[in-house]
Amino acid sequence: MLPFKTPFVAKYIYPRLLWKVKTTEKVIYLTFDDGPIPNLTEWVLDVLQEYGAKATFFCVGENVLRNRSIYNRVLAEGHKVGNHTQHHINGKRSKAEAYLADVLACDEALDTDKSNSSLFRPPYGRLTNAQRKALLKNKTIVMWDVLTQDYDQTIDPSIILRKSIAATSKGSIVVFHDNVKAEANLKAVLPAYLRHFEKAGYRFEAL
């Protein structure tokens, strides 16, 4: 099992990547990776609306092209979007030229002039040094402070909820996934997570 809270050493080695927002306010930055997809992304939007929460959706370009109306709803409801590559590819298994071309294709799918986004998150958190250096020229690379591991179907939702809450603090960037693999855990955890921090006086904002 991966750690729910990002180890300090990762932040120390890669200080130019955004791991957490420095703030003294009770703010949490929810992020959702891999969508948009029918039904589940729409469910997420409904839940966020119920709690008055804003979030950042790191979208896969091919999913945006398939589900343009859902993507447009994300923007229309005041959420932010970011690039998660066109085909959800692993940077460590890709040559820089091919990887950067895939990122550019996702930019086009996101219509970045419309979305006004320079945010990028690498699938699996995996990048080569060459890819990272090239992307930092015009992107903010957003990593995370809390990885909920909602995609891991072997972890009980109650454990995901408890450990995610314990790992979260002011300014945390929290990763959930709006994909099929994560659906059962996400539906069990997200409303309870929002409810817990709403009661604790936190608000949820987009990056």
How would you characterize this protein structure?
- The chain is α/β, with parallel strands linked by helices and 207 residues long.
- The protein has a domain at 27-135 and 167-194: TIM Barrel, CATH 3.20.20.
- 42% of the residues lie in helices and 14% in strands.
- The protein is built from nine helices and eight strands.
- The strands form two sheets. Strands 1, 2, 3, 6, 7 and 8 form a six-stranded parallel beta sheet that branches. The chain has a two-stranded parallel sheet with strand order 4-5.
- Strand 6, helix 8 (157-167) and strand 7 (173-177) form a beta-alpha-beta unit.
- Helix 2 (40-50) runs parallel beside helix 9 (183-199), helix 5 (96-110) packs parallel to helix 7 (129-135) and helix 8 (157-167) crosses helix 9.
- The model has no long low-confidence stretch (mean pLDDT 95).
Give me some keywords for this one.
207 residues, alpha/beta, TIM Barrel, 9 helices, 8 strands, 14% strand
Percent range of helical residues: 40-55%
CATH architecture of the domain at 27-135 and 167-194: Alpha-Beta Barrel
Distance between the termini: 27 Å
Look up the CATH topology of the domain at 27-135 and 167-194. Answer: TIM Barrel
Structural class: alpha/beta
Counted beta strands: 8
Give, in order, the helices and strands: HEHEHHEHHEHEEHEHE
Helical segment tally? Answer: 9
Q: Which runs of at least 5 residues are low in confidence (pLDDT < 50)?
A: none
The CATH class of the domain at 27-135 and 167-194 is Alpha Beta
CATH superfamily of the domain at 27-135 and 167-194: Glycoside hydrolase/deacetylase
Rg, nearest Å: 16 Å
Strand content: 5-15%
Largest sheet: 6 strands, parallel
CA-based shape: globular
Mean pLDDT: 95
Keywords: Hydrolase, Metal-binding
Domain NodB homology: 26-205
GO biological process, one term: carbohydrate metabolic process
GO molecular function, one term: hydrolase activity, acting on carbon-nitrogen (but not peptide) bonds
